[in-house]
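Hi R.,

Here's the chain you asked about this morning:
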Amino acid sequence: MIKKAAGGRAGTSTGPVMTYGLTALSCLVFLAGPASGFNRSYGADAALIAAQSRYFEHWGIVPADLWRGVPLEPLTPLTALFVHGNWLHLLGNMLFLFVFGAMTEERMGRFHFAVFYVATGYLALLGYATVHADSTQALVGASGAISGVLGAFLCLFPTARVTSLFPFLFFLPLRFPAWAVLVFWFVLQGLAARTADPRPGVAYLAHLMGFTLGFLYAWVRYRRPTRVKGAAPPQGARPPGGPDLSG
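And here is the predicted structure, written out as tokens:
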């Protein structure tokens, strides 16, 4: 949950349209693909596994193909943003987008936010493909773009109060300023990238690149962060906010 002070910049009556739209598009693409298990046109069992592999290689980014000049491969960092490997991958990414995307979109504006999301995600995946230029493993997911949203959020709303659930604290909900939660997340990604198997797997490097790009862009574009504080709501009123952020 994120709270901001009453009297801040008012949002539009229709809410964060781009955040909802990107979430819906990612979910629809997933449901239509083989990884969801709902589209039986891809077959079952062994046939389904083979279909998933072909699907990820077609729509995901394969670094070795990208740098060999295979036609249309430069588009795959874009298409890969809307493809996810399984339900946990999809839901985890969409939760972070929902929690942090709305206020970032409100600050940037709808069109600006959409361009920022796509551009940051594209560059993060491209950077990952550059480091792993010889890899033939397909990479999919919106993690790079969402990491960019997290970086921008840290710059724009460092004092926003975020309710987090930490497994090592028995999932006790605790409230922290956004800068503490997001810096902690960034450090975890860095540690994971250093200790992970050298072969491509979870794209921690894309997370780090996306986060850094998002933070630097917001810093250069907006300079002065928008201060956000928790505020007691009027008596009987429900405070604004979103879902809990699972750490």
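One quick note: Strands lie at 2-3, 161-166, 172-177, 245-246.

Cheers,
M.
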